[in-house]
Amino acid sequence: MASTFSIIIPHKNIPELLQRCLNSIPIRDNIQIIIIDDDSNPNIVDFDSFPGTNRKNTEVVFTKEGKGAGYARNIGVKKAKGEWLLFADADDVFCEGISEALEILNSTNADLVYFHVEARDCYTLEPNDEASYQNLICEKIIQGDLETYKYHHEVPWGKAVRKSLVEDNNILFDELFCGNDSLFAIKCDYYSKKTLGCNILLYCWMTRPGSLWHNPNDNWFRTRFISRIHIINFFNSKGIKSDWSDQRLQWYLQSIKYKNSFDYIWYHWKYAIVCHHYGLILESVVNRLRVFLGSIKQRL
Known about the structure:
Number of strands: 9
Radius of gyration: 21 Å
Number of domains: 2
Largest sheet: 9 strands, mixed
Order of helices and strands: EHEEHEEHEEHEHHEHHHH
């Protein structure tokens, strides 16, 4: 019996791009599409002619909580009926290889399958190399190397995961402003009993120069820090050592614009605890005390 597939798409305020994404998905009886609108602005979105509302096997869920893509994806996972889950961002598209990719999923007993992806400018469609890291990981898996870059593919797209894997291990997305997909992807890597790589081009990441990914603000770094804390707590609970995750956490820590000494100490304390760098707690307090005393000295 052929497998069934659920494609989950969170959306907010980009209906034209969402329609482009939908146009890239073949209309088939075994494909379910779930669109979750994250409280879009009615001045931007025409809800009377919302993309997908008249499409076969497509369900549109309108949320008003405004809790972000992680919350929206969790709704989609709960509504999914397919044996396989695939995820897309509303401004991206699937490539022509999607039909071939679904046939591969029909014939495999794997839990998690990675595919090749590409990246293009969202508007000019000019190709770029921003998806090269994801393809490197996929290539390593194809070659049989499951360990070198394990836990590094932190986006939900460009792969397919069995719904049973997600349900059996209660894998959910973090409901954060950003970085909500990282822990989900990492848990899928951890719990998968069989992971495959496939050289079929499945997905196109449409990069937008003005997006938050390319222009991160302070809230972005702070939220990514919290997301990374969740990841390292999970690693600690499973006895996994990840220098890469530690380095990422340090980068976020160095990029935050601290409001005051208490703000500085709180973030460094969180980092020190989860990474077992206990000496850093005292060091962070001493550093801020030096700054404080220096400011007093300048005023005298």
